Amino acid sequence: MKTTERSTLIKGSIAIAISAVLWGVDGVVLTPQLYNLDVGYVVFILHAFPFLLMHLFFARQYRFIKKMPRQDVVTFLLISLLGGSIGTLAIVKALFLLNFNHLSVVVLLQKLQPVFAILLARTLLGEQLKQRFVLWASLAIFAGYFLTFGWALPDFNADKNTIYAALLALLAAFSFGSSTVLSKKILGNYSFITSTFYRYGFTTLIMLLYMVVFGNFGQFQQTTPTNWLFIIIIGLTTGSGAIFLYYYGLRKVKAIMATISELMFPLSAVIFDYLINGSVLSLVQWIAAALMLFSIFRLNAEPEKVS
């Protein structure tokens, strides 16, 4: 490998790793501080605020909309609907449901997104899934169950919020996985700056419609100075900042390198969940988490064999 290629891979991997750590901080430390607000409003403001700031530096990105093919507009809309709106709504709601208990479980379950990403990619391409994919995907989902509940059977009364949070985390995994497939496709046509700008722009429009439909504008009055502080921090760092870094890195590395770098997300979430909230996974949860992440690694390490 040439020095230039190696340098490009290192830069891309580091960028993705940093963005993954930022998401870990966001999921455990920052976003839970907005628990007193409506979930839809939180998702709207966390996209609208950074998008307004982007106009100070990237207003010229609007020039692309005039000549953007309809297919690209649809792709950006789907990325924003799945990754920006549905996925974020699901993961934020899941975090709020747990009341700061075992937030790392939700984050780890979200890492099932490569299963859905590969499944969607194969579906869109019309290719058949072979046994190796079914094996590793099944093991990842199986491990996800034990990560959530351990050895115990779920109690649908006592564990109601845990079950809802787990299901929402899976919905987020599907949405983010689908968004990743579409983002990888669109990054072949646009820079990481343009892609981030339109992702946040379209998501803001979608969530504005959500706000109009559900009449949540009264939430502005309920937003405390502390809430605004965290909204600003998230908007500048773990929100748009992390997406910029992720898209920058995604253009420079292959899927397998991106997947390895993204493992910093659940790792950092587990560490921060322990340091901030004192949450510790049980032995069976640790084993299940390791099995799930290993299965996801295998799915990405040998795509030509599992697809």
Give a short synopsis of this structure.
By secondary structure, the chain is mainly α. It has helices spanning 3-30, 39-58, 63-67, 70-97, 103-110, 113-125, 131-149, 160-186, 192-214, 219-222, 225-250, 255-262, 264-277, 283-301, 303-306.
Give the amount of beta strand, in percent. under 5%
Poorly predicted segments: 303-307
Q: Which quaternary structure do these chains form?
A: single chain
Number of strands: 0
Rg estimate, integer Å: 19 Å
List the total number of helices.
15
* Mean pLDDT over all positions: 79
Counted up, domains total: 1
Shape type: globular
Roughly how much helix do the residues carry, as a percent range? over 70%
Structural class: mainly alpha
Describe the structure.
The chain is mostly helical and 307 residues long. The protein has one domain (3-306). It has helices spanning 3-30, 39-58, 63-67, 70-97, 103-110, 113-125, 131-149, 160-186, 192-214, 219-222, 225-250, 255-262, 264-277, 283-301, 303-306.
